[in-house]
Design goal:
four-stranded antiparallel sheet, 6 strands, two-stranded antiparallel sheet, globular, alpha+beta, Alpha-Beta Plaits
Length: 175
């Protein structure tokens, strides 16, 4: 009798169903679609990211993502916060992804913008989305200037928490 491999079982028939179903499990690769709309602010929501540096910062963040095997499908924001649409590999937890992006981009801001006191807020929001929401999310990120004429970052962030049914204590949201 052949020894069974737990990861690639031999072909079988499921006898519990009213009709025979044959299945074979062969998974030589891992497939994952992990898309996150990430949002984080500057420390104390200071309006410190000058409009002239924003395109370079967003591009730099995209490069950090690429260097850590993520895909930044979209990056944008305002003078006090950033939005990212990230596709993560299955081996990378969202917490590590955010730590890499925020620390590298903060260091870049110190060295490039001449603002040695630049900091991101301690936390972040990471909201999972499905593939059907990618285009709308990218449009949302691209239209930040227009969007924030109507609503500030704090109202926007609370709306994300409510939309995704995330419980929060208002006294701890802003750190």
């Amino acid at each position: 009798m052949r020894e069974r491999n737990a990861f690639v079982p031999e072909k079988r028939t499921n006898r519990e169903l009213p009709f025979p179903v044959e299945w074979t499990l062969i998974m030589s690769h891992t497939y994952c679609c992990a898309l996150f709309h990430c949002v984080f602010s500057t420390k104390e929501r200071r309006k410190i990211i000058a409009p002239e540096i924003q395109p370079r910062l967003w591009a730099y963040i995209g490069g950090v993502a690429r260097d850590h095997e993520m895909k930044a499908l979209g990056v944008g924001g305002m003078d006090d916060h950033a939005h990212l649409l990230l596709s993560l590999p299955p081996s990378l937890p969202i917490a590590k992804a955010m730590r890499e992006i925020k620390s590298a981009s903060s260091r870049w801001m110190h060295e490039t913008s001449g603002i040695p006191t630049f900091e991101w807020q301690e936390g972040y929001g990471a909201f999972s989305i499905g593939w059907a929401q990618v285009e709308g999310t990218l449009e949302y990120i691209a239209r930040q200037q227009e969007h924030h004429r109507k609503r500030d970052f704090q109202a926007e962030f609370l709306a994300f928490l409510k939309k995704h049914r995330i419980e929060y204590d208002p006294q701890y949201v802003w750190g």
